[in-house]
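Quick one, tokens below. Sequence please?
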């Protein structure tokens, strides 16, 4: 199984567990004289089995990521870098939007009203955000390529 397939299987298991949670809570109590639509105890057993599969799959994904060398570090290093780049891009883009007044409600109507002045340079912030976005795209492409070319360990 390729790493990308394992990631898809992990997402499917996570969705399945959430669906089971919803079904369990919907059937955990029922009115006297009525029958629940589903057996909550059986659903709970099914959820426990899915959780065990998820635990094993996550362990294997993490072990693979820790050993997978991308040339400039492991997959784990690349994933951490990607997470930080996403936060950095969001921070810069939000700062630029705020400084430009993009979300400002109500504009100055008369010359006697106080002007709003940007405390941050908008153009350099947007340029830096664009550079980070490009770096993020390139890193994400490398991660995706590795996901589809490397097998899941253990």
């Amino acid at each position: 199984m390729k790493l990308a397939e394992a990631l898809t299987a992990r997402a499917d298991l996570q969705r399945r567990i959430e669906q089971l949670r919803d079904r369990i809570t919907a059937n955990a109590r029922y009115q006297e004289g009525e029958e629940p639509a589903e057996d909550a105890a059986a659903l709970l057993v099914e959820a426990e089995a899915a959780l065990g599969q998820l635990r094993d799959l996550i362990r294997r994904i993490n072990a693979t990521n820790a050993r997978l060398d991308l040339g400039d570090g492991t997959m784990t290093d690349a994933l951490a870098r990607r997470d930080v780049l996403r936060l950095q891009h969001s921070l810069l883009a939000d700062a630029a939007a705020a400084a430009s007044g993009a979300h400002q409600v109500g504009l100055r109507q008369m010359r006697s009203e106080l002007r709003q002045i940007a405390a941050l340079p908008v153009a350099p912030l947007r340029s830096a955000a664009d550079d980070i976005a490009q770096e993020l795209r390139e890193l994400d492409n490398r991660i995706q390529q590795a996901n589809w070319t490397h097998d899941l360990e253990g």
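Residues 40-67 form the longest helix (28 residues). Residues 70-103+117-149 form one domain.
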